[in-house]
Specification:
This protein is mainly alpha-helical and 147 residues long. The mean pLDDT is 87.
């Protein structure tokens, strides 16, 4: 079942359950996927779908930090609920130890030895971890291992 079919099925279930947060989030996700399809001019591959979902998740996490800093507790709770919904459509995230192992293997593969090789390592490791790990975690792990 494609992501759009899954979103449609879950949207109907959320309507029947009168779950406004889940329904609103699924509608936003569906719109983002359809907009991306229109932009690229073809049905999305699973990697492209994951990229769209990852982008939506990142936006919500960024807003979450801003709302926390502004003291908007109700908006923070709504965003946490939205984040749970978005995460349910993404592949399971890797643990810090798993990310560290993959980053170390990549460092060894590209022969990186110093901070100057940061870009080379990130360029090689991100395709392996796309949708499976948070970019901030990968970035921090690469910096830590290159020091």
């Amino acid at each position: 079942m494609s992501l759009l079919e899954s979103l449609q099925k879950d949207m109907i279930a959320a309507m029947k359950a009168k779950d406004k947060v889940k329904l609103g989030t699924i509608r936003m996700l569906k719109a983002a996927v359809v907009n991306e399809q229109i932009e690229v001019g073809h049905d999305l591959s699973s990697d492209e779908e994951i990229a769209v979902l990852s982008r939506e998740l990142k936006q919500r996490k960024d807003f979450l930090e801003e709302f926390k800093n502004a003291g908007r507790d109700e908006a923070v709770q709504n965003l946490k609920n939205e984040i749970k919904v978005v995460e349910s459509y993404l592949p399971e995230q890797l643990s810090e130890d798993e990310v560290k192992t993959i980053v170390q293997e990549t460092i060894d593969q590209v022969g990186a030895t110093s901070k100057a090789d940061f870009g080379k390592v990130m360029g090689a490791v991100m395709p392996k971890l796309k949708g499976k790990a948070d970019g901030k975690l990968v970035n921090a792990t690469v910096k830590e291992l290159l020091n």
